[in-house]
Structures are given as C-alpha cells and as structure tokens.
Design brief:
This protein is an alpha+beta fold. It has a domain of 66 residues. The chain is 11% helix and 26% strand. It is built from 2 helices and 6 strands. It has a 6-stranded mixed beta sheet with strand order 4-1-3-2-5-6. A hairpin with an 8-residue loop joins strand 5 and strand 6. The chain starts with 14 loop residues before the first strand and ends in a 6-residue tail after the last strand.
Length: 101
C-alpha cells in the first residue's frame, strides 16, 4: 500500500511479516522495520526471525491490537528500523538498508 498512510494510521488489511512469538503474545514487539521496499516486519528483538516457521505473514492490525503503542509507527518512513528495550519504552530509530548479497 502506498505510503504515507492517510492520517498516519495503518490501513486495514496492511500486511506484515510478524514473528510468531509476537503474534502469540509470548514476547513483546521490540523491533519494527519499514523496509526500503515499503514492506513491514515486526520482531521480538530476541529470537532469530529467520528460523523456519519463525514468522508468519498477517495483517499488522492483529499486532496493533496486542500492543496499541505500535500504531504510532505508521508514520515511520521506508528505510527505518525502530527498536526499544521493553514495551512502553521510547523507540530508537535508525536508517535501514538491505545488505548487498
């Protein structure tokens, strides 16, 4: 979906790659990526998201329902990684680029 989003809100039906530990509520969302290609990913910041079965494609709204503080990140531009130490902590933002393969 084109960015920026109207009213800086995640659109209904926006997809994201989300770690299963976050989606299940086992761990909080501590990393959010809006990649340079306009994709979204949400991780727990602890476990490896690249293990087989570690992530699932879902609507970002499911994760925002678990943690409404994520809604503020809808304004985050492509190419940005947000990290925090715990739920409710201040987000730290950094530029993100895919490594050359």
């Amino acid at each position: 979906m084109p960015w920026p989003f109207p009213n800086n809100q995640f659109p209904d039906g926006l997809g994201a790659v989300v770690m299963r530990t976050v989606l299940s509520g086992e761990r909080p969302a501590l990393q959010v990526l809006h990649d340079p290609d306009n994709g979204w990913a949400i991780a727990d910041g602890v476990d490896d998201p690249n293990v087989p079965g570690g992530c699932v494609a879902t609507h970002i709204s499911h994760v925002v329902k678990l943690d409404p503080t994520l809604a503020a990140l809808a304004a985050m531009p492509p190419g940005t990684l947000a990290d925090r130490l715990e739920t409710g902590a201040e987000w730290q933002f950094s530029d993100f680029k895919w490594e050359d393969e």
